[in-house]
Each structure stands twice: as structure tokens, then as C-alpha cells.
Design goal:
This protein is mainly beta and 130 residues long. It is built from one helix and nine strands; from the N terminus they run ββαβββββββ. It has a single domain, classed as Sandwich (Jelly Rolls), CATH 2.60.120. Strands 1, 2, 3, 5, 6, 7 and 8 form a seven-stranded antiparallel β-sheet that branches. It starts with 11 loop residues before the first strand and ends with a strand.
Length: 130
Amino acid sequence: MTDVTTFDPRKTYVNLGANGTAERVEVTEDFWTELREGARRLDGYLITVSDIRNDMPHLEMHPNGDEVLYLLSGKLDILIEQAGREQRVPLRAVGSGVVIPAGAWHRAIVVEPGRLMFITWGEGTEHRPL
């Protein structure tokens, strides 16, 4: 029997593997760098939770899969760039969400600090400065 315990989703992410597993992933200081550089591999969607106090200082894009953003608290605008146009999607109600299409550049803009859940196909994620 496997022991079932709780965890803090801001410090431990979950990788939903293509084979149906849900593996905990401890977040280290080098986690995102390792993922970007291919030193860390994930097979499936990564579930993360982040406190969002400031506007994202860069745009990001996930070429290999859609991303789901789910508002847990606060108020945010999600800026999405695709096909040469920009769209601002307001997340105001707790429990509201948006699906970011694969290949669309995006970032969060803070209206009221809060917490956001990300469900992301993490492999291949790219960042672009503003």
C-alpha cells in the first residue's frame, strides 16, 4: 500500500504522466532552468500553483500543448498574443479559467494580487522578454 500524504502545490508540483501517473516533483532553485535546457524531462502535464503579486516580467509560450489557467484568488488579466493580434482576458471570479492555445505567447497582469493554478505541457516552454 502506498502512503498518501498532503503537499503544498506552491513547493511541490505534480506531473500528470501520459501513462496516467501523478508524480510529485519537488521544486528546486534550478527547476525551470533545468526544464528549459533539457536537463529535466517531464512526460505529460505539469500542475503548479503560484502566488502572483506582480505582472509577469516576460512572455511565455508552450509550443507542445495547451495551458489551462485557473484563478484561485485575486484578479488578473491574461494577455495573449497569437496570429499577430493581442487579446486581454480578464480573470475576476475565483474559479474562473482560460485555456491558452499551444503556440500563443502570454503573460499575467495583476489587477489584485492572487494565486493561480497552471496546468501546462511544460516540455519546450519558451520565454521572451518584454
